[in-house]
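Give me structure tokens for this 210-residue protein.
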Amino acid sequence: MSAFIAKCVSEVCKRYIKKNNDEFSVGMIAFNDAIDLYSKEKGSSFLAFAKVIIKRKVIDHIRKEQRQYIYPSLNVSEEEELEDSPMEITEAKKIFQLNEESWYRKQEIIELAKHLKAYKISFQELTEISPKHRDARESAVFAAKQLVKDPILSEYVSIKKRVPIKKLLKVVPVSKKTLERNRKYILTVFIILTGEYQYIKEYLEGGVDL
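Here you go.
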């Protein structure tokens, strides 16, 4: 299969690719991904499917390299490079995107778990303390947003790792008891809003439970 992978990668790079080239390694990883993702029910042959996945991965790699380093411009065109049938391309793109998003979500969850640990909060604990009613969750999210908006309160939370209940009571229409009960949930939302958590933020905006 190495010859097949090298051919696919070379077509994208418009030059002969050897096994010791970085692009070939990217192609090899993509080929393994294709093995895991392929299903006969999709209708396309495995090699056609693998070709699309390999080229997508290599194109993505090249674009990242072009952004970060001085890299020869290859004028990569998806329409030009992905010559398989529209159905195969659409299916491969869909699976590729879902697979990529899944990976990034997992990385965000791992990073969030580490961040929460500094605040002495665990994921297991979150399932128990998360507000059960939608309006309570919305109030907690609103409270967290007030902490983010106020530079002084935001700095306090970042340093002290706790919710400034008395100060927060002045800017949110909820009781002290409610804030104290939901303080860890509020801290969690604060961490997500102030961190690089693109996918987890989407869950929050969609009203999904943490």
